[in-house]
Design a protein that fits this description.
The protein contains no helices and 11 strands. By secondary structure, the chain is mostly beta strands. Strands 2, 4, 5, 6, 9, 10 and 11 form a 7-stranded mixed sheet that branches. A 4-stranded antiparallel sheet has the order 1-3-8-7, with no helix packed on it. The model has no long low-confidence stretch (mean pLDDT about 95).
Length: about 120
């Protein structure tokens, strides 16, 4: 199982960012994909998850209205898009496969930096 994420991003405040996570080594539609982030000096923060089989999403309340999860089953890739970025969104963003509510395989992380 591998989850390979896109590279680091630098954005201005107010902009949007989209991070990808390409999955391989398993049947993509059989497992949810979760998204988690870690800001500098802080713990892991769960953002939500998506079911690749039907696109059903569950967003953490903190991010509702500002985050969108999507998948492309033809390329077994999941995406997270976060808009109206602010400096507090500076973090490493991770995708993870979810198995029985556990995150069992993780992407390598994508650094998103929000700075003017």
């Amino acid at each position: 199982v591998q989850l390979v994420q896109s590279g680091a991003e630098l954005r201005n405040p107010g902009a949007a960012v989209k991070v990808s996570c390409m999955a391989s080594g398993y049947t993509f539609t059989r497992y949810f994909i979760g998204w988690v982030r870690q800001a500098p000096g802080r713990g892991l923060e769960w953002m939500g998850r998506i079911d690749p089989e039907d696109g059903e999403t569950n967003y953490a309340q903190k991010f509702q209205g500002r985050v969108t999860f999507t998948v492309d089953t033809s390329t077994t890739t999941a995406y997270v898009e976060l808009n109206s970025l602010r400096s507090e969104d500076t973090a490493v963003y991770y995708c993870a496969r979810m198995s029985q509510r556990r995150h069992d395989y993780w992407g390598q992380g994508t650094q998103v930096t929000v700075s003017s």
